Amino acid sequence: QVQLVESGGGLVQAGGSLTLSCTASGRSLRRYATAWFRRAPEKERVFVSAISSSGAYTNYADSVKGRFTISRDNAKNTVYLQMNSLKPEDTALYYCAAVSSSATTVYIPKQEHEYDYWGQGTQVTVSS
């Protein structure tokens, strides 16, 4: 079992930056593809970004490309989401998710049902 804990959320003005962290316990994250999803108020949870277990491959939703950067530090068992140029529409509860993945695979899941482990979420609020 992998337990995921998100942190780093908060209140920020539009144009500001935040860095979210997803730290795993129970098992090493180095064999898990890891993703960020978000759920805005009264909306469904949607894909934001994902990174392969090796860190060599990444994927982003069109809405965050060029503004968000996903990265990982397997030594710290942590995946990060650097969020720049934040907009009010980025306001959401951000979730970290993980699924076991080969170190050589180039496929990065983007659908909720493809992930086995989830954190509780961290709130990001962007004021205008």
The total count of strands amounts to 11
Q: How large is the radius of gyration?
A: 14 Å
Helix coverage percent of residues?
Answer: under 10%
End-to-end gap? 40 Å
- DSSP helical segment count: 0
* Outline type: globular
Low-confidence stretches: none
Beta-strand proportion: over 45%
Mean pLDDT: 95
- Category from helices, strands and their pairing: mainly beta
Instruction: Provide the succession of SSEs.
Output: EEEEEEEEEEE
**Main β-sheet description:** 7 strands, mixed
Outline of the structure:
By secondary structure, the chain is mainly β. It has strands spanning 3-7, 10-13, 18-25, 32-39, 45-51, 58-60, 68-73, 78-83, 92-100, 117-118, 122-127. 34% of the residues are buried.
Secondary-structure map with pairings?
Blueprint: E1 3-7, E2 10-13, E3 18-25, E4 32-39, E5 45-51, E6 58-60, E7 68-73, E8 78-83, E9 92-100, E10 117-118, E11 122-127
Parallel strand pairs: 2-11
Antiparallel strand pairs: 1-3, 3-8, 4-5, 4-9, 5-6, 7-8, 9-10, 9-11
Q: Mind explaining what this structure looks like?
A:
The protein has 128 residues and is mostly beta strands. It contains no helices and 11 strands. It has strands at 3-7, 10-13, 18-25, 32-39, 45-51, 58-60, 68-73, 78-83, 92-100, 117-118, 122-127. The strands form 2 sheets. Strands 2, 4, 5, 6, 9, 10 and 11 form a 7-stranded mixed beta sheet that branches. Strands 1-3-8-7 form a 4-stranded antiparallel beta sheet, with no helix packed on it.
